Amino acid sequence: MSLSPTDGLDLKVYLLDCPEGLILFDTGYMPEDIETIGKAISEMGRGWRDVKLILLTHGHGDHIGNLARIKELTGADVASGEGEMRDIEEETGVKVDRGLRHGDYIDLCGGIEAIHVPGHTVGNLSFYLFRQRAIIAGDTIFGDEDGNLHPPPDRYSLDAYTAKRELKRLLFYDFDILLLSHGRNLLRDAKRKVKMLCEAT
Ligand SMILES: [Zn+2]
Asked: Does residue 9 carry a pLDDT above 70?
């Protein structure tokens, strides 16, 4: 779902509806984002307490700003990239229950694999959803309104060179769908476009 714009950029978070409960990917950062997420949860016929896991792509404020409040509402476990779990804990005051490394598997919703793509931040993650053949990219890739893909902007990245070089880690996975935090999602043929992006950067 789309939340309030950050720095002129649209920000999206995702809810995955699984038999075991809901998984929330990132939290947004404005108080009104919490209302938007709450509404989406009720439209699914669920409540805050059905959120069992909060998966954080990385520790930038627009992605984790509402973590403390959403943790209170849900009681959900929290997982992030291992390389920045301590920073996230310090910034939000919320304990990160699991630090994820490249290739770590989450046995929910048909299987989710953590893809560590360092550069944008130290522990920056994307997530592969096996059943949906989709990647939730986080800030690993940005999109524009024309459906073009870009590496994360240099000014927002810790190490822009590494962020570009490591994009190719996504190509290890078979996916059709690419779900972005910023920009227009690709709902088909996404792997080919990511490959083109890797070749161009
Ligand atoms: Zn970011």
From this structure: no
